[in-house]
Amino acid sequence: MTLVIREIKGKKYYYSSLSYFLVSKSRSFSKYIGAKKPAKKELNLIEGGFRDEIIARLSGKKYTVESIEKNEVIKTLLFKDLFNTKYENLTELRRRKYDIDSTVLFTLTTLTTEEVNVSISDVKNALEKDSSLTRMEQISKNMLNAVESIKQPHPFDKDYLLKLHKMIMASFETKNPGHIRDKQVYIHKMDQNSPIGVELAYRPPTYMKINKLLDEFIDWYKSSNLNPIEKATIAHYKLYRIHPFLDGNKRICRLIFNKTLLDEGFPLLNVSMEKEKYFEALINSVEKDQVKVLVEFVLKQYYKQVRDFLELNSIA
Length: 316
Prior knowledge:
It contains eleven helices and five strands, in the order βββααααααββααααα.
């Protein structure tokens, strides 16, 4: 924060100024403090309160923070505004193209990330067809339906979570779609010396605890006032640690992650676009019980994907 002095008719007036560099320009906010220069301790309090005011002004809400600074929350909201302004200024045809392309790419990425052998053609065909689908097209169709579902304002509860899982795993009958797992599962990370990878030091809870843990997770989700980026990421982190299903856990996590963002007016974020970096951040955060690792990765992806969108549509 910068303390700005303005002199009017020989008298000094003090203002607090905060600036944020976005893509090609900066956005500044100014607040009048008074005619008396504040002490350093008072200035720190003013600065914190000013950031809260900016967050409320940009979002209409009083978001809280946990692992990132308020400045970062302000930046995420400013980037959201940049994205939405550019999106709304696109022609209807280009908006439609963006919606289709981003949904298709998310569907392809979130499936291939889990070694589901779908192709871009499978996803595009699934988008256009309603019958006579191949197995890979049907798997793609199921995920496309789930993406469309999270774009709608559904209340988030356990029933909706199970419904989403049943939707995306309908073609994997042996994985008990739509039902909580009934046995112990383990999380492995890739290792060149082992075909199945190496088990993490962290082991998901026993299946007998899942219902209680999901209830606690839903309660946390409904009551949390965290800023959207942190809430989405921590929801992903918490749900992944519970590992409520036999399979499809990361897919469900990414859907709930994006539902959280979409509900708050943020764009769909393809967080597994860079598969290896995503896995590394997720595994490290789980192993070390440090969600901040995953939050920092998500922030980088968010800024990058919004910048890419703005650059791609710079002449629109």
